[in-house]
Write a structure and sequence with these properties.
three-stranded antiparallel sheet
Length: 148
């Protein structure tokens, strides 16, 4: 009977040690997960707003010499500081170029005013965003402008 009792004690000790090790490993894993959160998706918001700050009333119908106004928005969700270059072209001609450095989660909304000088329908006002000195365009937005 003593041998059965001793065997049970050994088994219980082994199971207790395994349980304690499991609790320690689980706790360490939980602490690691809490301390190093998942970074999430990396992206840049790039958008245009009308002159009143909404997604309406874009200057799409203008007369020669009129000024159009939009708000250009950029939000950095890349989880790091990013250097951006913004180009604005009208019918393929450069109107404006700007360099911006946005820190993680920084948001910039800049008013932009342009003047149209040529009559025509469906003229392209293009907003090109480049990221970190890249040659290829990272994001593109455009408006079609009718000038009478």
């Amino acid at each position: 009977m003593d041998q059965k009792f001793t065997n049970k004690r050994v088994i219980y000790k082994i199971l207790s040690i395994i349980l304690v090790i499991s609790i320690i490993v689980s706790s360490a894993t939980l602490i690691y997960i809490l301390v190093t959160p998942k970074p999430g998706e990396r992206f840049t918001e790039f958008y245009l707003l009308g002159p009143n700050g909404t997604t309406s009333d874009y200057p799409t119908d203008l007369m020669i010499g009129d000024e159009g106004k939009v708000i250009i928005g950029i939000v950095n969700h890349e989880h790091e500081n990013v250097a951006y270059r913004l180009e604005v072209n009208f019918n393929g001609s450069l109107l404006h170029e700007e360099h911006l450095l946005l820190v993680k989660n920084e948001k910039v909304e800049s008013p932009f005013t342009f003047q149209v000088k040529e009559k025509g329908e469906n003229q392209k006002l293009e907003f090109l965003l480049y990221k970190n000195q890249q040659i290829e365009v990272y994001r593109i937005l455009h408006l079609w402008i009718n000038v009478i």
